[in-house]
Amino acid sequence: MKTLLRLSLLLLLVGCASPQFNYYPPEFLTEVPKKNSTTTAYVGDTLVEQKLFVKHDAIKINTPVKISFSSYTIPVGTYLKVGTEKSKNADAYAIKNTDGENIILGSFVDPAITILAYKNENKICVVRANGAYHCTDAEFTRTIVSYLGESSFQHSLLYSGKVGEKLNISYREFSNNHARPAFTHNVEYDLNESKIIGYKGALIEIINATNNQVKYKVLRNFKGE
Fold it and tell me: Sign of torsion, CA 100 101 107 110?
């Protein structure tokens, strides 16, 4: 009798799913400071910066999720969205969290290909390669993870001081949060020639400058943005 009950519960927890790996997180351009605002910066500070951020839908699991009878354990962590499962009204998430931890497998179970989180229920599922899925009730929260994408760049102009009427600026370019030495340049401007300086499309009006600080206004950010 107990065996039959166990098998009945297992059948209720196992079904088939066909998740679509069709999610592409949106990108958002951020620029600081705001255009035409007057700002003061000190040596080593950023004068103007432009970043292309990715905002990725995700779920956060605060307590390990153990799925009965299937020997799958989803560790605590944040899991990025990878697609949808319309027939189940659920979203699909990566099997590895942002800390690099994978779903823990028990003995003699197939690897998982994705996690399903239902939109209108506190229900989590693990989906296998053959489409079979195993579910349990679980608490999770939906969140958004922001990061600089692999194909994104960060552009920055830094204040390097002033000698006489010569203003020194450093341009730095980052890719995926890593500085690129080949794209780091130091530039010198003669304020006797113009109070407006520019680099890579960015334009800055210098209001007042000393060797320690500069007061300025951003007229245009990089690439005319």
Answer: negative
Dist CA 211 CA 44 (whole Å): 11
CA–CA separation, 66 and 197 (whole Å):
59
Alpha-carbon distance 72 to 91, whole Å?
19
**With 50 as the cut, is the pLDDT of residue 43 above it?**
yes
The encoded tokens of residue 83 equal 């697609």
**How many other CB atoms are there within 10 angstroms of residue 93's CB atom?**
26
Sign of the torsion formed by the C-alpha atoms of 102, 103, 104 and 108: negative
Residues shown for the chain:
225
**C-alpha torsion angle, residues 135, 136, 142, 144 (rounded to 10):** -50
pLDDT in tens, 64-88: 999 977 689 999 999 999 999 988 8
Are 69 and 13 in contact, with CB atoms under 8 Å apart? Answer: yes
Q: How many Å is the Cα radius of gyration of the chain?
A: 26
Backbone phi, psi, residue 19, to 5°: -65, 145
Show the tokens assigned to 76.
Answer: 């605590």
**Each residue's pLDDT tens digit, 191-204:** 999 999 999 999 99
CA distances for 225 relative to 32, 35, 82, 178, 179, angstroms: 12, 10, 31, 23, 22
